[in-house]
Sequence to fold (417 residues):
Amino acid sequence: MGTDIVREPPAPVALPSGRFHRFRKAAALTLTLLAATSFPAAATPAEPKALLQLGLYQKDGEAWWAWESLRRATPDLADGLSPKVVPLDAKRQGSGVALRATAPAGLDVRALCRRMVGAGFGCLVLDAPSPASTPATPASAPAPSPPAPVPPASPPPTSQAGADGAFSYGPDDARTMADIERHGRRKGRLGAVIPDTTWDVTPAVLKRENWNLCALTFDDGPHRVVTRQILDVLNREKIRATYFPIARVAENQGDIIRDFIAAGHEIGNHSLSHSDLRAMTPEAQRFEIAEANRILRGFGADPVLFRPPYGRYTLDLLAIARDERMSPVLWTVDTRDWQVRDPDKIVQHVKTEAGTGSVLLLHSTYPSTLTALPRVIGEMRAKGCEFVTLSEWIDRMRLLANDPVVSASAQTGTTRN
Fold:
């Protein structure tokens, strides 16, 4: 066996008593400084935050007013939200703005939106990443930015919103409306009104069947004076029409919407803000339709028809409308009341262009339309028109398109008794 070696601990170094005391004081001071010094901790990932859209507006002031209304009416719903107003299209002046808010991490934003909608406010979740599946954003990273708007498929409209929902339309709008009318002439009546339908009925079949239902439709507004007087003319003439108001304007004029409904007229959806919806993200497009429905339903309406502003649409927009249980609709005859502002020219255009089974586009905001309306009705009646709402027109037209007897008569040239 070997010999175990035992190592003694080194002997302490002896310091002179004066130097020892000075060393002990210096060590104590060093420890104190170390304890008081805060070293930067490693950055920890922040939980993802959600982005909410609380409404679309024409002007910044309207958006901030809506935020203050929410904060005053339901402070518990606004608590913790960080609001901001952003343009819908930064490159186009007057395109409108969105009121958005960042929600604190960990908040159930979908439940919050349901409560907001239940309280009468708008709410849409734009971005709510799941912490389980989405990498956390570092604390030093900027807040999430809103989705960039999709550029329009053609030059943006030059229309301008006036008082009480009255619009003036520019050259781009005139070209769009002319294209719609031109394309409609190449289709049957149903195909002109419903842009994505697979059914159709030609004017020749309508004449053979002695089918002459017509629909008067009005867009925009409500105008506080003109729209009310148009309603009076319709009621006096015992005509049921279809009215497509701008929901943001109608929001402050619920009495006129209720009066249209009480008189048996139909209320359709013409969007929340009358913006060119093609220039918006899919989320914003859906919000425009859904929020308009929410406002109009609050007045007792049950919108089932959606007419896109300016008649501008994409197939994706039509799909979103149908997903919201809306039927997209246009028209067969544009009276051009938005362009000419002359009662005689409006009447003459109807006399020349309208025919069997026409759906007329008019506007509820122009005094010239109001003046022309009784004569327009007279011209249509002289053509044998029986006036119905647009929904009834579509339902009856679809029955005709699906009727096998009508299909057979169209092929043989015979008519039903």
